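Section 4.2 – Deliverable D4.2 (structural model, holo form)

The reporting period included a commitment to supply a predicted holo structure for the target in complex with coenzyme A. Inputs used:
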Amino acid sequence: MSANTSKIPVTIAGTGCYLPERIMTNEDLEKLVDTSDEWITNLTGIKERRICADDENTSDISTKAAENALENAGIKGADIDLIIVGTVTPDTTTPSTACYVQHNIGAKSALAFDISAACTGFLYAMELAQRMISDGHYKNALIIGAEKLSSVINWEDRNTCVLFGDGAGAAVLTAGSENTGRILATELGTDGSQTSILNIPGGGSACPIRAENVQDKLNFLSMQGREVFKHAVNAMKNSAEAVIEKAGLNADSIKLVVPHQANIRIIDAIADRLTIPNEKIFVNLHKYGNTSAAAVAIALDEAHREGKIQRGDNIILVGFGAGLTWAAIAIEW
Ligand code: COA
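Output (structure tokens):
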């Protein structure tokens, strides 16, 4: 990855998000597993999360977030020529969730596909879309991070069920001009030696859906929390530092950092190591928990709509997820 030297600048034309209506609080979880509001709050910062209705799928919440972003950008679905959905909870293994979204928003001429990069999915999608636009082949991309994680959570496992939630976020990327904001630099990475510390073992070809695998709960998300924590802090700190340097920014010239929303202690550790004051770090995990690929997308939209990002501001997006995967992106808004 390198600083963006392409001739066509890529700008964020609009953002959107959608959160399911149903709220699950820490007190609700106390009734399901041996946990407490105090433990969850102190160790993660999460107070509540959203849960999709049974008949509400990842493509449905993706579509709502997409419509919200299109409205914000002032363009129609028919104007979109590229759709990338980052998700680990697609409606179906195939076709991709992006295909359902393409139909739902009437983006008839758009190329549509999903990518699987766990919590880093939205940022991987942003990297791909910006490369495809800056090459001159596509003009308006819709990128989405969306998850129905409630469908892969073991609601009897207190190590994981308290951490996650459902939701969707989206952004419209478009070919800009000299006078618009632009993606300044990107820094992405993968470490495939750590696949075992965070994964969903079943449901793929290595461990198909069979009665005995379901019996062993292999269809649910599995995690070694401490290991993941350690890697998350290092990867996000290193990638954020690298992208800040590539973009020629520093702590003073950065208006806002929008990090992956997994755990307030991870976010605080990164802010501390980057020596960026807490008021420049956007946090909404107390409301939604970790929504994986949706987390940075939802946070970006909320920060934008709350007026925390204005034209000309420099912002940093940074994320981390299973894979392991990580990414940091510097944007002049
Ligand atoms: N409620 C109450 N107690 C719990 C609990 C819960 N929901 N989950 C675990 N515990 C207990 C453990 O059993 C353990 O008890 P013990 O000391 O008697 O053995 C104790 O709390 C400490 O558990 P531990 O896992 O060592 O805590 P931790 O400091 O590592 O914090 C996490 C746990 C999950 C909050 C933390 O590891 C974390 O956030 N990791 C990263 C997770 C993440 O971000 N994943 C997604 C990445 S994209």
